[in-house]
């Protein structure tokens, strides 16, 4: 039975909300020892974007600090004081972008969620892995709260402080287990790759990710989706609201499929009954009208060709040899995953497996023989390794996957 963790050891610290208070935190953490536990609370589903509304830190000798990044939006001084110090985060990819916005950028990282995945833990949420590894039960009731609320309730602050209370102890336990199982170098390579990955470029045509857009069957209706999505995004940004609180995706799709011409037709739609949707009804109607008036050449294409291979279910018909390679590659990754107790997607990204199987590197022969060699599966291990590096695979992954993959493909 896990022991409930109800209170931070030193109590809940006051929220740092001024330059003077932040300077004291910087001095204290610069004088602390060992890794620094870091966490951030956002207001996903409430506010526009993914900015942090509370940042939690904990370090031996410094205790816990709760920083309001709205009042203290520049943490570069803290970042400089911790240069070279390992920062411990859980699911680092979720928090690193919002931490970078305020100038907090790790130079050394330990991701406890990713460590748990490499160690084969079936549940790697912070509460689950703390309970499994350390035997403590964390309260997780405020994870989806609106952290833009001011002032923050005391029980929310307690929850936030507890999120970093045991993070360094968890890191130490997982580090020891990684070392014991021979997986530490894998983890260190993964952590370095996270830090080396540049920020994601803005997605092209983000409106195409509208939930339910597959129901929209023609280009004119797609134009309505685009106009509504862009209108909603502008309003959401101006009002600092999550786009879904301005107009839900289901309403965008329904408006696109029905293309109302009058306010009465628009308000008669079931998804337009909410107060948020009705508040900007004139903006939605104008967006629909603009899309209806676009010339044919201004309509979006129904499908945008991707830069990757076609859907796997079409391979057997289009390229049977590629389909055979994909089946063999997936079998290799699945077998290794079971043997090493590492999730298949962490052992090799599914997209890399598909791309490699669809367009394998040429085999050891050159010229016209290279193509036939690749088609028959005779691809050298060196060529496979180079191809996987080009697809972003790490050396530990390449070392594990390439030898059995080269053997499997040579037998096709």
Automatic annotation (TrEMBL):
Q: Which Pfam families match?
A: DNA_pol_A_exo1, DNA_pol_A_exoN, HRDC
Q: Which InterPro entries match?
A: 3'-5'_exonuclease_dom, Exo_C, HRDC-like_sf, HRDC_dom, HRDC_dom_sf, RNase_D-like, RNaseH-like_sf, RNaseH_sf
- The record places domain HRDC at 218-298
UniProt cross-references to SUPFAM superfamilies, sorted A to Z: HRDC-like, Ribonuclease H-like
User: Which stretches are tagged as biased composition: Low complexity?
Assistant: 364-373
Where do the record's region annotations for Disordered lie?
296-315, 354-373
Q: What is the name listed in the Swiss-Prot or TrEMBL entry for this protein?
A: HRDC domain-containing protein
